[in-house]
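Here is one such protein, fold included:

. . .
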Amino acid sequence: MSPFTISVSCAKRTDEVQLGVNSGKTRVCFGNWKYDILLNGVKLLPDGNWEETCSNQDNDCDYLEIELPLTENCTLQRFFLLDHKDKLFLCGDTVMREDELNKPCSLEYETALPLSENLQMLKRSKSGALLFGNQKEKQVCRLFPFFSQTDARVSDEHHFKAVQNGSALFAAFCIDLHPQRFGTDCNWKPLTVGEERQKVSPDGAAAFHFQLGKQDFLLYRSMSAPANRTFFGHNLIDDFCFARFDAKKGVEGLVEVQAED
């Protein structure tokens, strides 16, 4: 049995999502994962209930995706991924405006991850990784924020904000739960996504390469119509992909969510 567990519950009458993440007996996240989204300066509100859209559990990973309709013809999609072998937890939000791909708009996104109140930030690396610990354990986890746009910032150890000029926005977070990796170098960078030899805009698709010590990973999210795309030498038509990368073995897909026509 994996020493790492996650729990997700959605309140039917509100837009609350209660998130719980445990590393052994240590609580990493617990509470309501809040968000605040503005479209052209207008706050988006829930226009329905959270619904499960995709889930899968296997020996490699547990994956869950839920969706909430918002006002102004928008949708919030949220994913949760637990990589048992690599001791990683990833989660993220995708905000999309339906049928408005060619209309200019501005999206502002702000969120606060429900990190345990017992955690305190110990260090912030040059790459933006945040190292957390508590009184019993000096080091508990490392947190990396990924954004599909350049205008993004970390307000403090809990709050993250991003602005996207376009019809969609992707923001994701990786929590490293492997203590033996906390002292290793960590880096991440956005990748160029191509389609028919043309660069895909940040509100069309986003991809990231991140390195934890000697381990390399890839994260991809499509925010537009299904298409054959390429990033980091990898070709796919998926909506979502999380993979390991090895220079000799290439890309090993761990979670792949196929696009719907």
Remarks:
- Residues 4-183 form one domain.
- The mean pLDDT is 87.
- The two ends are 37 Å apart (CA to CA).
- The longest strand covers residues 61-70.
